[in-house]
Specification:
By secondary structure, this protein is of the alpha+beta class. The protein has a single domain, classed as Ferrous iron transport protein A (FeoA) (SH3 type barrels, Roll). 15% of the residues lie in helices and 37% in strands. Strands 1-6-2-3-4-5 form a six-stranded antiparallel β-sheet. Strand 4 and strand 5 (62-66) form a beta hairpin.
Length: 87
C-alpha cells in the first residue's frame, strides 16, 4: 500500500486519492472548497483531455475539471478502499 503524499496532478487515471491539504489562497481556495474539494474528501481521477490538460475528477457525485497548475496545489494520499472512507 502506497500512502505517500503527492499532488492531485501526479495521480494516475483511475486512482482514488484523499485530499490532505489545499495550498491555494483567496478566491481560488474558496472556489475549490465550493466545488467540494476539502481536506478528507476522496477524489477519483476520471479522464484527461487529449493534450493532457485539464483533467476531469470525480468529486462526490460531480465531475469537475482542473488545470495542472490548480491540481499541483492539492496534496493527496492514495486510498486503497475508496468505499471505506468518508466522501
Amino acid at each position: 500500500m502506497n500512502t505517500a503524499i503527492h499532488t492531485l496532478a501526479d495521480a494516475p487515471l483511475g486512482a482514488h486519492v484523499r485530499i490532505i491539504t489545499i495550498h491555494n489562497q483567496g478566491a481560488e481556495r474558496r472556489r475549490l472548497y465550493d466545488l467540494g474539494l476539502t481536506p478528507g474528501t476522496v477524489v477519483q481521477v476520471e479522464t484527461r483531455s487529449p493534450l493532457g490538460d485539464p483533467t476531469a475528477y470525480r468529486v462526490r457525485d460531480a465531475l469537475i475539471a482542473l488545470r495542472v497548475e490548480q491540481a499541483c496545489q492539492i496534496d493527496v494520499t492514495h486510498v486503497e478502499n475508496p468505499m471505506g472512507g468518508a466522501q
